[in-house]
Amino acid sequence: APKTFSFSGLQARSVQIVLRQAGQQPVDIGGSCDGPLAIRASGRSTTVARASPFHLSLPVADTSSVSLFPDETLSRCDLRISSSQAPAGAPLTLLREEAADPWIAGLDSRYDRCPVPDPAGLEELDRVFYA
Predict the structure, then answer these.
(1) Is the residue at 46 inside a domain?
(2) Which of 35, 72, 85, 108 is the most buried (most CB within 10 A)?
(3) Which domain range does residue 16 map to?
């Protein structure tokens, strides 16, 4: 079954998804997204347009990583991950949580607060705790 990685952009200035290779073989990642995706790898940045195919590699080196920065309009990326051990690849979906499940997004974006009583009707010690 395809794997899904959900991410949220609620109340975020930007979203960064860091990819690191934990195995012993280089990994190739290819796919496309329904919105712009910025990719930072090896000190270089590039932006892939909506629905444009892209390809990147994750080497085995412990210190190397690739960062993905989904645009706020991006909801989904359909990727295929492959390596020499799995040349056919495996599907991976990156899915914006608030687009996939608006009900959960509604809970995540709520602001609940406790009302603060009018300080004029409080004793001094009580006012300290509400300050």
Answers:
(1) yes
(2) 35
(3) 3-100
Give the residue among 96, 92, 95 at the shortest CA–CA distance from 29: 92
Task: Give 2-54 as a 3 state SS string.
Answer: CEEEEECCCCCCCCCEEECCCCCCCEEEEEEECCCEEEEECCEEEEECCCCCE
For 109, phi and psi rounded to 5 degrees? -95, 0
**Residue range 79-125, pLDDT digits in tens:** 999 999 889 999 999 999 888 787 777 776 676 777 888 888 888 88
Report the Cα 52 to chain-centroid distance in Å: 19
Q: What is the pTM of this model?
A: 0.76
- pLDDT the model gives residue 23: 83
- Give me the half-sphere count of Cα atoms (radius 13 Å) on the Cβ side of residue 21: 20
